[in-house]
């Protein structure tokens, strides 16, 4: 059923380009982070390299884990057509706006630099495919515009950079036991 190899095959590339949703998991010794991702945010640079466009959010665990040398897994699965799952096991390098390579990488996308947080280069060290037969069929309806609209409004109000700076460190989950114990005393 499943196969492992070191680089993307053309069939994997074709499959990834068709997906409207993927999952990004990361860990660097803290909690495992798993986020669903949408938008046209992935570019395949070659059979071992992906470029990811990162929009602002409430935390920045992907960045934290990349800076700590953490491990990443990107998962793409079929909701329509033939069942399939492609997992990409990677290391990540953040490309910040101050990086001299940023503009060149950003040119792979049609997006205003002001609306994004950063880019990531994912260096693939293993690819795994599996059947995906338990994944349900679902129809893609449309892209949510909420995050892009929010970022645009924050830029127009002159507040996005401040928001990104304030939310550059992900919220700590270490005190949740204390909070839980206090709530249920």
**How much strand?**
25-35%
Evaluate the radius of gyration.
Answer: 18 Å
Counting helices, strands and paired strands, the structural category is alpha+beta
Strand runs, count: 8
Please report the first level of CATH classification, the CATH class: Mainly Beta
* Tally of separate helices: 6
Tell me the CATH superfamily. Answer: Electron Transport, Fmn-binding Protein, Chain A
Domains counted in the coordinates: how many? 1
Quick one: biggest sheet? 8 strands, antiparallel
User: Which stretches of 5+ consecutive residues score pLDDT under 50?
Assistant: none
Notable features of this structure?
alpha+beta; 8-stranded antiparallel beta sheet; 185 residues; Pnp Oxidase, Chain A; single chain; globular
SSE map:
Layout: E1 3-5, H1 10-18, E2 22-27, E3 33-37, E4 42-46, E5 49-54, H2 61-67, E6 71-77, E7 85-95, H3 102-106, E8 118-130, H4 146-156, H5 160-166, H6 176-183
How would you describe what is shown here?
By secondary structure, the protein is α+β, with helices and mostly antiparallel strands. It has a single domain (3-183), classed as Electron Transport, Fmn-binding Protein, Chain A (Pnp Oxidase, Chain A, Roll), CATH 2.30.110.10. It contains 6 helices and 8 strands. Strands 1, 2, 3, 4, 5, 6, 7 and 8 form an 8-stranded antiparallel sheet that branches. It is globular. The termini are far apart.
């Amino acid at each position: 059923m499943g196969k492992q190899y070191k680089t993307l095959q053309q069939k994997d590339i074709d499959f990834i380009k068709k997906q409207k949703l993927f999952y990004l998991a990361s860990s660097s010794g803290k909690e495992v982070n798993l986020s669903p991702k949408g938008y046209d945010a992935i570019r395949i640079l070659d059979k071992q390299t992906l470029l990811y466009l990162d929009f602002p959010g409430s935390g920045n665990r992907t960045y934290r884990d990349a800076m700590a040398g953490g491990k990443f897994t990107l998962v793409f699965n079929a909701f329509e057509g033939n069942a399939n799952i492609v997992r990409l096991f990677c290391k990540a390098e953040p490309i910040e706006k101050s990086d001299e390579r940023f503009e060149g990488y950003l040119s792979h996308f049609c997006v205003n630099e002001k609306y994004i947080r950063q880019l990531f280069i994912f260096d693939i060290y293993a690819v795994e495919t599996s059947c995906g037969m338990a994944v349900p069929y679902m129809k893609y309806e449309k892209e949510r515009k909420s995050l892009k609209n929010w970022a645009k409004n924050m830029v127009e109000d002159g507040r996005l950079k401040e928001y990104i700076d304030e939310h550059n460190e992900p919220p700590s989950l270490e005190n949740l036991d204390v909070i839980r114990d206090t709530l249920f005393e």
